[in-house]
Specification:
32% of the residues lie in helices and 23% in strands. The chain has 308 residues and is of the alpha/beta class.
Length: 308
């Protein structure tokens, strides 16, 4: 049985090889992504038994997602290919470094996720159920699914981890706040970024008074802050030569969750999380740079290959 179960929408990403407007590109790389997929892959590479619950379309992109996840060792017992299409997004990086994403996901197969999408017994023995704020923004049924899954996890003594992952193209700050107000009583571990904390709560320092017992504030180049049982702990970032920051926050969450499973203290959990985030930011793709467990010692002791 999995140690961590995660659920959400897989996406296929098309990414140009060089900076510039998409309109001028002829060659695009194909990647598999989606916030919860990225977390699942990063955990699997660290040797964590992880299960992914989700849906893709009965199309070639859905087949691609399934093939990639199986290759990474993610348990797909409750992964389904259903009528419909698989979500897609295109990314561009402009010459001065600004990034833009164009999503084609409205009405996707994953947006039909609903309560009962998996047997809640699948959660038995898991340490965490990990979800993101993207899934409930996809559709009313997805919102109901996330709240149902949280409740089923709590019934079984499984800790719930939630990454806010606010997406302004999916819902308004007010809608996100309303969901969080309903969800937070179920949440044991909350991840959010500086920008999300300011947008949703006024400022980052207010994160410490949220209802979740454990709150982790992701601050990018400034590192991260965790509030656990009233204690504030700071974690320094690894100064990385960033190549592609997409997916770095998901890798951070995976590293922090893995730290829990390894029995690490808060400071070491933050260190592992920052390491994974830096590795992904230093590589192209949404999770391609996520390290394997056997790489961790070498990366932490001699990190010149990836970091300045």
């Amino acid at each position: 049985m999995p140690e961590v179960v995660t659920a959400g929408e897989p996406l296929v990403a098309l990414v140009p090889l060089e900076p510039g407007h998409l309109r001028g590109k002829r060659l695009l790389e194909v990647h598999v992504g989606g916030a919860e997929v990225n977390v699942a892959v990063a955990l699997a590479r660290l040797g964590v038994r992880v299960g992914f619950v989700g849906q893709v379309g009965e199309d070639e992109l859905g087949a691609l997602v399934e093939e990639r996840l199986r290759a990474e060792g993610v348990d797909l017992r409750y992964f389904r290919r259903v009528p419909g299409f698989t979500g897609l997004y295109l990314r561009e990086v402009l010459p001065l470094g600004q990034g833009r994403a164009f999503y084609y996901r409205k009405g996707s197969a994953a947006s039909a996720l609903a309560p009962g999408a998996f047997d809640p017994g699948y959660l038995e023995g898991a340490h965490f159920l990990h979800l993101s704020g993207i899934t409930p923004a996809l559709s009313p049924s997805c919102r109901a699914f996330v709240l149902w899954a949280m409740e089923e996890a709590k019934k079984r003594g499984v800790r719930v981890s939630l990454d806010v992952n606010y997406r302004q193209t999916l819902w308004s700050p007010e809608a996100a706040q309303a969901f969080l107000q309903e969800a937070l009583p179920w949440v044991d571990l909350l991840f959010l970024s500086d920008e999300e904390a300011v947008l949703l709560f006024g400022d980052g320092e207010r994160a410490q008074v949220l209802e979740a017992p454990e709150v982790v504030l992701k601050r990018g180049k400034a590192g991260a802050t965790a509030w656990v049982a009233g204690e504030r702990v700071e974690g320094e970032a690894f100064p990385v030569a960033a190549v592609d920051p997409v997916g770095a926050g998901d890798a951070f969450a995976a590293g922090y969750l893995a730290g829990h499973l390894l029995g690490l203290g808060v400071a070491e959990r933050l260190r592992l999380a920052n390491l994974l985030g830096a590795c992904v930011a230093a590589s192209r793709g949404d999770h391609e740079g996520a390290p394997y467990r056997e790489d961790l010692e070498a990366l932490l002791e001699g990190r010149a290959r990836f970091f300045r």
